[in-house]
Amino acid sequence: MAKKAKLSREGFERLVEKVLVTLPEEFQGYLENVAVIIENDPPDDMRDVMGRYEGVPLVERSMDDMVMPVCITLYMRPIERACHTRAEMGVEVRVTVLHEIGHFFGLEEGQLEHLESKKDTEIRGPEENKRYHPREHQYY
Question: Sign of torsion, CA 84 36 61 27?
Answer without folding.
Answer: negative
